[in-house]
Amino acid sequence: MNATTITEHCPEVPVSLAEQAYGRLRDRLTMLEIRPGAMIHDALLASEMGIGRTPIREALKRLETDHLVVSYARRGTFATQVDITALSDVSELRRHLEPLAAHKAALSAPPAVRQQMQDLARTLEELACGDATNRTFMRADLDVHRLIYRAAGNDHLEETLVRLDNLATRIWCLVLDRVPGVSGHVQEHVQLLEAIAAGRADEAAGLALDHVTSFERTMRVVL
Question: Where does the record place the HTH gntR-type domain (predicted)?
């Protein structure tokens, strides 16, 4: 499973080359597959992705707004450093917005999306029983969050939460090898997905808040 799973369930929505480039680069930057501080070469990326440089440049403009890259005149574009000091600010917003998204998703998600949530919950259980790596669990974590945000049915809420979750995930990936129980943290999502799929809005909101609080507490111990 990877971070493109959710978009693959919406084949009827055409995706531009710039959108494709944005999604792929965003996830590589989020998972620190493009290391913090690394220079971004648009020509090299265009060659790797098999697309033109214009979509790459459009994607990079969006990624700068997301605080994942930064551009300097006459120097170029670079992956941003992971800002550990942003943990408090990011967590403060997520404590308010994650429960809202979970609550809204539980009330408004269509049947097909509820089934998708149940399927994703089963996938998480299978991962926990196997020998999945921490990075695999983190990709699953991204899938869960993005599915819930989309199911909430509010584009502005979704955009904001995806951006915040990406920044939080970068912090986690920075210390991933030192974080105990990553699988257990991701497994918290099984209950959350099941609550949303069943329409238990208040329970879903509470579980979402617990999850964000648990993440912040874990990061503070490690950092």
Answer: 15-82
Cα angle vertex 109, ends 108, 110, to 5°? 110
Q: What is the pLDDT of residues 24-64, one digit of tens each?
A: 999 999 999 999 999 999 999 999 999 999 999 999 999 99
Do the Cβ atoms of 213 and 206 come closer than 8 Å? no
Give me the helix-helix angle, 155-174 and 134-151, nearest 10°.
170
Indicate if 110 and 180 belong to the same structural domain.
Answer: yes
Sign of CA dihedral 70, 39, 82, 92: positive
The answer to whether position 7 is within a domain reads: no
Q: Find the CATH number of the domain harbouring 45.
A: 1.10.10.10
Mean pLDDT by 10 residues, the chain (223 residues): 41 77 97 97 94 96 97 95 94 98 98 97 88 87 96 98 96 86 79 98 97 91 84
Q: Are 68 and 28 in contact (CB under 8 A)?
A: no
Domain membership of residue 181 as a residue range: 85-222
Reading the block at residue 133, the tokens are 């790596």
